[in-house]
Amino acid sequence: WRGRGGAGAASGGGLPLAVDATARLLEAAARDAEAHRPGGAPRSEAELRDCYAMTVIRLVNGVADAGQRGAFAASVADLAARRGLARWLVDVRHEASHNAQPSLTTLRLAAAAAITWLRTRYW
Question: How far is C-alpha 24 from the chain's CA centre?
Fold first, then answer.
């Protein structure tokens, strides 16, 4: 998909949100698994947290942006709720964006919940 996207394809440009988010979530999980495999590529916890956090942020923001209508901006939480995205994923996005980054355990759970949401809503 990214290879067919032309300019900006490596950053997800031109891809549907669900396709890009699914790919990024699976890539994060693969990096995480590789880091724990004997002889695998070592990854720091910070790198894994960054990878998961950015993907959750992009997904939640993309879902919210797609629902933004009218002259006045609605909250990310309200827009995500309208699309059936769990409030705690919005809270994880908020923490990762504006406060201390959530724990790796929390981010792994968020990634799993995001994959489930994408599987239900998109695939």
Answer: 7
Distance CA 17, CA 66 (A): 10
Residue 70 structure tokens: 């009218």
CA 69 to chain centre: 22
Residues 87, 78: Cα–Cα separation, whole Å: 9
The model carries a pTM of: 0.84
pLDDT band per the 50, 70, 90 thresholds, residue 9: very low
53 and 41 Cβ atoms separated by less than 8 Å? no
Residue with tokens 């769990």: 86
Per-residue model confidence as pLDDT tens digits over 28-42: 999 999 888 888 788
CA distances to 37, 66, 85 from 93, in Å: 28, 16, 12
Identity of the residue numbered 80: A
Q: 11 Cβ partners below 8 Å, 6+ apart?
A: none
Exposed, middle or buried: residue 37 (CB in 10 Å: 0-12, 13-18, 19+)?
Answer: exposed
Tokens coding 96: 């990762």
Whether 121 contacts 84, CB under 8 Å:
yes
